[in-house]
Design a protein that fits this description.
Layout: E1 7-11, H1 15-26, E2 30-35, E3 46-49, H2 51-69, E4 75-79, E5 86-91, H3 95-100, E6 105-108, H4 109-117, E7 125-127, E8 131-136, E9 141-145, E10 150-153, E11 155-158, H5 165-171, E12 198-203, E13 209-212
Helix pairs in contact: 1-4, 2-4
């Protein structure tokens, strides 16, 4: 007699949660996403994705969408912040693909979420579900949400980010600790960039840096 597949509930519909759900479903498990937001958010900025990460998504069958929505920069060019003098220039593509079997890709977070979620059945992504609690029942887990929904699963995965409800329930509330680093983001129309192949990182005084990443947005 065949056994039913394990039912896995994943709390959090970000990059990690969606990728976990897709990987688990392709391995034969039942996986459902429970995301507190009413829609998969467009919040976020550009993401630099090395060939190791791109290779995982390609193996999951997302290569066409990833390469359609993302950009494959030809090189990275590092300059001094004060006088623009070149410190180093390194090739990215097509060398990354030749060496590692996948390209270096830059992509907007919203586009990446759309690419990954396209590999999942829509009915397996449950939006508007904010986790309130869960309980270990021995052979299964019971979880409940702010909209009154209660579910049973064989396993619960917490992929709900820096303010994780799963982590807080398991280990107690703990405020994030400031690491002393700040990132400021801005947008420049791509037609104003003379060289579309460059990803420029300019180390400034102290720990400051300026990064210009070509993107499809």
């Amino acid at each position: 007699m065949s056994r039913r597949p394990l039912r896995i509930a994943i709390v959090g519909g970000g990059i990690g949660g969606l990728t976990a759900a897709l990987s688990l479903r392709q391995a034969g498990f039942e996986a459902d996403i429970y995301e507190q937001a009413p829609a998969l958010t467009h919040i976020g900025g550009g993401i630099n994705m090395g060939p190791n990460a791109a290779r995982v998504l390609i193996r999951l069958g997302l290569g066409e969408g990833l390469l359609r929505e993302g950009v494959r920069p030809a090189s990275t060019h590092q300059r001094r912040w004060d006088d623009g003098r070149t410190l180093q220039r390194a090739p990215l593509n097509p060398q990354c693909e030749e060496l590692y079997g996948a390209p270096h890709v830059t992509i907007h977070r919203a586009d990446l979420l759309a690419v990954i979620s396209s590999g999942l059945p829509p009915e397996r992504i449950h939006l508007g579900h904010r986790l309130l609690g869960f309980s270990d029942k021995g052979g299964h887990v019971e979880a409940w949400f702010d909209n009154g929904v209660r579910i049973d699963a064989d396993m619960l995965v917490g992929a709900d980010g820096i303010h994780s409800a799963v982590r807080a329930i398991l280990f107690g509330e703990e405020a994030p600790k400031f690491a002393g680093c700040v990132a400021y983001r801005g947008l420049v129309p791509i037609e104003r960039l003379a060289d579309l192949e460059l990803s420029v990182v300019s180390p400034g005084s102290g720990r400051a840096a300026i990064s210009c990443i070509t993107s499809c947005r």
